[in-house]
Each structure stands twice: as structure tokens, then as C-alpha cells.
Amino acid sequence: MTHTVVALGDHLDSLRQLTPHRGVIDSDEDLEPRGGVRGLVVGVDLTGARSAREVRAELKRQVTRWAEAARRYPGAIHLLIAYQIPRGLDPSRVQGAADGAALRAHAMLERSAARYVDVTLLDVTECDDTTVLADRIMERISGRAGAYSAAALTWADIRGTSIARATMADYY
User: Which of 45, 66, 116, 140 is the most exposed place for a label (fewest CB within 10 A)?
Assistant: First the structure.
């Protein structure tokens, strides 16, 4: 079955293998109706930030922005935001902010749009296999919603397993 996935946001090199997948479009300008969209994949480039504090603040702003944009897609049950941080910045300095932003985005969509949307934030800074990353993303979006409400993962978390399994391992 083909699931319509819209790729939005910044064009990250690590997401380059996503658009060749069947059912993925890289623009929603001519997309009508938007109800057929099952998932949104958003690229967020944070590499220009000068500090961990700046990265955390901008990540929170971007997650809020894209959660609000997700309201335009009544059929979307997955919002996956892939982001890159400056090389050399310890990902653990961003992880707490990413976890919190994912939870807030999920709650906002549940309250304002009256629907359940799984929100996943994924740090792809260290991604060294764009084909596997694209496969993991498509596998997650083709799966059912509700296994988890919000998650923040890194490439290391999903390199050898699915996003759903990595999230469940993180939960339990």
C-alpha cells in the first residue's frame, strides 16, 4: 500500500534517499486534498547555531512551527522531525529539549486538532547510511500510530533497529 508522505523543511543530506521512495512527495504546493497524507517528514538544519543553548531554543521553535503546520493535514498520524546539530556538540546536551519538544507537540496536536499524532524527533547528525535512514522512516510512517506518543532518538538508536523498537526500548 502506498502512503503519502510529505517531506518539508530544510533539505538535509541525510534525507536525500527519502524522496525516491514511492508515495513520498517533496512539496505540498499542489497537494489537494491534504487528507490523504499519512505522515510528515521535516528536515531541520541547526548546524549554524553557536551553542547548545541556541540549538535547544531553535529546536523548540521549529518543533512548534511544524506541529502547527501538521494541523493542515487531517489524515497525518506521524510527524517525524529529523534535525542536524553542529558537529562536535554532544547530542546529550540537546536530548532533554528534544524529548520535551516532542511531548509538547504531541499534546498540542491532540488538544488543538483533536487527533492522535505520533511525534518523533530524530537527531541525524551522525547518520552514515542514508538508505537505511530512509527505510527506517518509511517503515515508521507505514506503521500504526499509538505505539508511543512522542520520542526523541538519535541515529545511533536506530542504526540497527526500527524507530518503533528503539522507541519502545527507550520507554521500557
Answer: 116
Which strands, in side-by-side order, build the sheet including 118-123?
24-25, 4-9, 37-45, 78-84, 118-123, 150-154
0.90 surpassed by pTM: yes
How far, in Å, CA of 171 to CA of 120, rounded?
Answer: 13
Other CB atoms closer than 10 Å to residue 11's CB: what's the count?
11
In sequence order, the 6+-apart residues with CB closer than 8 A to the CB of 150 are 99, 102, 103, 105, 106, 118, 119, 120
Task: Give Cα separations from 46 to 1, 39, 60, 128 (angstroms).
Answer: 34, 22, 11, 18
Q: Give pLDDT, residue 82.
A: 98
Query: What is the bridge-based pairing of β-strands 4-9 and 37-45?
Result: parallel
Cα angle: 25, vertex 28, 32; to 5 degrees: 110
How many C-beta atoms lie closer than 10 Å to residue 13's C-beta? 12
Nearest CA among 115, 103, 43, 101 for reference residue 73: 115
pLDDT in tens, 80-95: 999 999 999 999 999 9
Domain residues for 25? 2-168
In the chain, how many domains are there? 1
Provide mean pLDDT across the span 113-142.
94
